[in-house]
Amino acid sequence: MLAPSIIGFAVFLIAPIIVVVALSFYDWNLLSDPEFIGLENYRDLAGDDRALKSIGNTFYYVLLNIPAQTVLALALALALNAKIKARNAFRVIYVLPWMAMPVALGVIWRWVFDPAYGALNRFLDLFGVDGAAWLTDSAWAMPVIASVNVWQYTGYTMLFFLAGLQAIPAQLYEAADVDGASPAHRFFTITLPLLRPAMLFVLITSVIGSFQVFDTIHVMTAGGPAGSTATLNYQIYLESFTQRNAGYASMLAVILFAIIALITLAQVSFFRKRTTYDFS
Amino acid sequence: MNKTRTAALAALALALPLTAAACGGDDGGAVTLRYAFWDDNQRPALEAMIAAFNEDHPDIEVELEQNPWDDYWPGLDSQFAAENAPDVFWNHVSRFPTYADNGVLLPLTDHIEEDGIDPSVYPENLYASWQYEDDQYGLPKDWDSIGLVYRLDALEAAGIDPATVNDLEWNPVDGGTYVEFLQKLTVDANGNNALSPDFDPENVTQYGTAMASSTGQTDWWNYAVQNGCSLQTEAWGDYAIDAPECVEAIQFTADLYNRWHVAVPAESTNQPNGGVPGDYVVPGQAATTLDGSWMLSFYRDGLEPGSWAVADNPSGPAGSGTVINGLSNAVYAGTEHPDEAWELVSFLGSEEAQSIATGMGSVWPGVASLNQGFADYWAGEGIDVTGFQTAAEGTTIGYPLSMNDAAFGTAALDEFNQVWLGQKDAQAAAEAVVEIANAE
Known about the structure:
The complex is a heterodimer.
Chain A: H1 3-23, E1 26-27, E2 35-36, H2 40-45, H3 49-81, H4 87-99, H5 102-113, H6 119-126, H7 141-166, H8 170-178, H9 183-194, H10 196-211, H11 215-220, H12 232-242, H13 246-270
Antiparallel strand pairs in A: 1-2
Chain B: H1 3-15, H2 19-23, E1 31-37, H3 43-56, E2 60-66, H4 69-81, E3 88-92, H5 96-101, H6 109-114, H7 124-128, E4 131-132, E5 135-136, E6 139-144, E7 146-151, H8 152-158, H9 176-185, E8 187-188, E9 204-209, H10 220-226, H11 244-258, H12 266-269, H13 277-281, E10 286-292, H14 296-302, E11 308-311, E12 315-316, E13 319-320, E14 323-331, H15 338-348, H16 351-359, E15 364-365, H17 371-380, H18 386-391, E16 397-398, H19 405-420, H20 426-437
Parallel strand pairs in B: 1-2, 1-3, 9-10, 14-16
Antiparallel strand pairs in B: 3-14, 4-5, 6-14, 6-15, 7-10, 7-11, 8-9, 12-13
Helix pairs in contact in B: 3-16, 10-11, 16-17, 19-20
């Protein structure tokens, strides 16, 4: 019974990982046979300013993306967990961006952010504000991309918090009410600790997703201007498919894998401690 | 082939769309050929040529696979890696050296000799550009050059006589008559043009020109050639765009954006994500552009007949000129149907096939005797396209040939995008590009 999923796992996950790790020790231009060069790709990384900058860009993007997305998603989940009118409609609306194609959305956002003809600057113009050249100004490009992705994934993240909130037993809040706890006190001693499993899941998946951001960048800036939005994942694409350095790109992929693995391990160990309340 | 490659191919094959499964149909001995190209403007001409091909070859089915330029090459490269490339595909001189050198192209020399193809029907240099180490790797599909495309209504509104457009001159000091021409055509929201002291560069409703190119072919290369810059020391040689005449032309291109304010801002046009020049000319955001002959049908389909025209390129200090280029149809070395693929390439290179394309005004033909037919088609549309032929003379050079095209192309786009934005000095950018492009 397990065979189909194991085969899928091996063919689509394990085999490509092994191939990428192996290729990272080769020089390969995609067109002729790969040539074994040992650790040369790894040694070259030290002198590759572009790749090193892309690692920095990746962390910058994750820092812009994750805190904003997580806090917003939690706030939305709390709001939509309360008994408000039409809350199911709101839940659907917030999840819609996640259901749409990232590439199509990227194209539309690019139009919105176009400095001369875009909707955003036209709108700002009504108030006499001169909008920036959002996507070609190296100070703005990354925050703009991060905000588009926050917009896109907040609703999806919210779903997990909603599920987590609904799993918290109502009697805890009733008991807190009886004891006269303030809303803030209830949030920090009941809600947040008991959301720990949901938080762990959300952070691990969204941090991994952020480290692997690609489509929004490809469509909106293609890594520009001057490489300021080239994340490590985008650099892998550029090296592999525009420069035909598949071996070098594989090395970068191994580095990305190592970074993600370390950060995920750190998160798991941080969240290992669980809060439970015993009712018996 | 060694084990690593096999394993890599297995992985890559999984990552690719299952194209093989989609087209391997075996209906009664019929053969299906995959034919890949990038310019969707030319699809109608390709379909018409394939229909003519099928009259003599009903047993060969041709499936078109189109991807836009920026996606075409990564796609083709990964299909080579997976040994599942299209049987026949458009080739470009910028990629040709690397492909020929790595053995992914089928040499056609023997076929050409056996079939008695006469190479003299093609211009000699066009045919020779597909030779590598004594073998011929393609038959010329077309040639192209750059001309000045403009809107007649914009010139009329600015009071410019279209007869003067063929004689524009520029220089890096005061811009010359070309910049003055563009200034008259650059109009702000209050109706002031860029020559007026009241001109507001922040609120322009129509720019004089639009420039956008992912290679340089339709923007700064023109000014480079017109300023005596030849891009490379020689064909196959080092890139030499840090020479003074090149840097001056790059600076002039930047000046059109930032000093004269006559070009649609680089914030909108920088590639690969910005629009192409035609995207600004057709809706009237730009009055003119220097564009490729392959884009003619784009303007025909987007603009009213009689509302636009083509003129000679402006002249720079070294004369008038541009970069000319041509495409070929190539055969994949790993094709399962080399004979049928040759039949198709041979037909597409024939006068019969190319007269279909010129009769539709698609592209300038590889077969020299058909040039007149192409010009005639456009004359019938009210467009004088001889400017492209004039552009092929003068100080014109061929497309740069190098094994380092990928490194050069990426570095140039990256660096010069910053120059167009006014964020980097032309000299520093040119030096950075040369350092990267000549490194390997």
